Amino acid sequence: MTLKEVQELVEAWVGKSPSRHKSELTNMAALTEEVGELARVIAQKHSDPSADPVRLREEMSVELADVLWAICALGNGAGVDLTEALIDTLQKRN
Fold first, then answer.
1. What is the pLDDT of residue 22?
2. pLDDT attached to residue 16
3. What is the DSSP string of 22-62?
4. Can you tell me the distance from the alpha carbon of 44 to that of 46, in angstroms, rounded to the nearest whole number?
5. Distance from CA of residue 25 to its chain's centroid?
6. 12-71 confidence digits (pLDDT tens)
7. All domains of the chain in start order, with CATH
8. What is the Cα–Cα distance from 41 to 66, expressed in whole angstroms?
């Protein structure tokens, strides 16, 4: 699946109900929350030697997907093609 397809998938889900369209500020707050949840998993991974690595990997997978979802929602709301934006960023870094 391409990044463009992911954006389209998020938009299709959001588009099923007008109440699911959130403001840019709400989407930014959601992204911040998801990044915080990802940080919690990473902190636990590095601070709790008794933590189950399989469970942590699964939680990290879920949180990374949630972060991607929130980024797509922000991009869609702003009319940003994340594929193009990523390509531009990679070209600047090279």
1. 80
2. 79
3. --HHHHHHHHHHHHHHHHHHHHHHHH-TTS-HHHHHHHHHH
4. 5
5. 15
6. 988 877 666 788 999 999 999 999 999 999 999 999 999 999 999 999 999 999 999 999
7. 23-93 (1.10.287.1080)
8. 13
Distance CA 55, CA 41 (A): 10
Q: Which amino acid is at 81?
A: D
- Residues written for the chain: 94
Q: What is the pTM of this model?
A: 0.89
Rounded Cα distance between 18 and 37, Å, is 27
Q: Which amino acid is at 79?
A: G
Pairwise CA distance, residues 91 & 85, whole Å: 10
